Predict the structure.
Amino acid sequence: MTALTLSTSAAPGLRADAIVIGVAKGAEGPVVAPGAEAVDKAYDGSLAGVLETLGAAGAEGEVTKLPAPAGFKAPLVVAVGLGAEPDKDSGFDAEALRKAAGVAARALTGIKKAAFALPLTDPADAGAVAEGVLLGAYSFDTYKGAAASDGKGAKAKNGKAPLAEAALLGGKPRDRAYKAAVARAVAVAEELNRARDLINMPPNDLNPEAFAAVAQTAAKEHGITVQVLDEKALVKGGYGGILGVGAGSASGPRLVKLSYTSSKATKHLAFVGKGITYDSGGISLKPAGHNETMKCDMSGAAAVFAAVVAAARLGLEVNVTGWLALAENMPSGSATRPGDVLRMYSGKTVEVLNTDAEGRLVLADALWAASGEKPDAIVDVATLTGAMMLALGNRTFGIMANDDAFRSALHEAAEEVGEPAWPMPLPEHLRKGMDSPTADIANMGERMGGGLVAGLFLREFVGEGITWAHLDIAGPAFNEGGPFGYTPKGGTGTAVRTLVRLAELTAAGDLG
C-alpha cells in the first residue's frame, strides 16, 4: 500500500518523481489552486496560461502532465482538475480533494514518490487527500503474471506497480490533529481496500469457509472476538434461511459474528452483511450474461467486515458487532426449489418463489440473530436487487429504514464521506404482495418496486422496537466500467465509509 507522509518541504527542493498540483475551473479559464504557489512562481506566474494552452480547464477528473520548471528536483508536474472554483469564503470540499488525489494517484502508476501540493487548509483536508491517494492507488493484481506466480500481488507481469510513496505538502508532521486525520485515513482506506480485494477474488478461491477464515485472521490481529457457525451449528441453531440458500453448493454456508467492544462504550451497533460468495441464481438460474460478476454478491459482508475492523483500529468508543451471512447459491439435486418452504431462525416460515431472491433469506436469519442482542441500531448492507439499480443507477445506493430520523442520519453520513445515497420509502401497500397461502410470508412480492419489497421483507425479521436501516448497494458495489475519481474498476468497497462514519457519530453521541 502507498506510504504516506506529511511534509513541510517546499516543492522545488523536494526529491520526488512528480509534483501534483490542483487546478480549478474558473469563470475565465483554469485557476491554479492554493498549495501550488511555489510551482506557479517558478513558471513566472503564468502556470494557468500554460495549462490552458495544453488544453486544461480544471474540470473534475482531468489530468495534465508537463515538465517541471528549472531548479526543481522533481522532473514532472501533474495538474489534476478539482472542478468548479469555490467561493472566496469557502475552500474546496473534502470530496473534491478526495477525487482529485485519487485521480492523480491512479495517473502515477509506476512512480516511486510523488509530492501532493493540493489545498490543505486544515486536518480534514489532509485526511481527505490521504484517503483519496490510498483509494486511488489501489490495484488488484494477485492473479496476473508474476504476481500470480510469486503470490505477492505487488506487480503484474509487464505492468507497473502502484504509487509507492506520497508526501502531503502543507501538512504539519508534528501537529496532533493532522497526524490523527492521516492515521484515520490510513485505517479506513486499508480496510476498504481489503474489502475490495475480497470482492475481486474469484469464487473458486473465496467460498464461505475461506471468507470466514479471513475474518478469523483479522479478528485475531485486531483484538476482535469472532464466532463462526458452520453447517452443523447452523442446523442445530435452526438457521433455515442460510442453510436453504447454501443447500445446493458443495461449499457449506457460514454465519460469522465479529464483536468489537470498547470499555468506554454506551451504545451498541450491529452491522449485517449479505455474503453470497457466488450467486448463480440457484434453480431459478440467471440468464447468460448475468453471471460473470456474481462473485461480487458478497460485497455487503465485505463492507461489514471492513467496517468492524476499522472501528477496532480506530479505537472507537462504541460496541460494534458484525454479522456475515455467507453462502454460495448453486443449482444441484440438493438445492432449494421454487415452492419449498423454509423455517427461518426467527421461527417464521418462508415460501421460496424464486431462488434468485436468496440474499433476503440469509439476511433474515442474521437480522434475527443480531436482534437477539438488543443493539441500539441495526444496519444491513446488501447487493440485494436489480430494481434498486434501475431506480438509482450504478453509483448510488438506496437507504430504507423503520425510523425516518435514522434514515436521514445515515443519508447525511453517506454524503459526508462521499458515498452517494438516496432515501427510499417502505410503502405498506406492497407488503400484501408477499402473502403466501402456505407459509407466513413469500420471498417475492409485486414486481414493480422490487427493491422496496425486499426492504419490507427484511423488516419482518427485525426485533420489535429496534431501530433498523437497509442499504441496497447493488448499483455501486461493483464497477463494470472504467475507473473514475478514486473508484477502481471492479469491487469498490462502497458503504464501508458510511458504516465507519455512523460508528464515529454514535461514539460521539451525535445520533441521540
Q: What stands out?
A: The mean pLDDT is 95. The two ends are 37 Å apart (CA to CA). The chain has 15 helices and 20 strands. The longest helix spans residues 176-200.
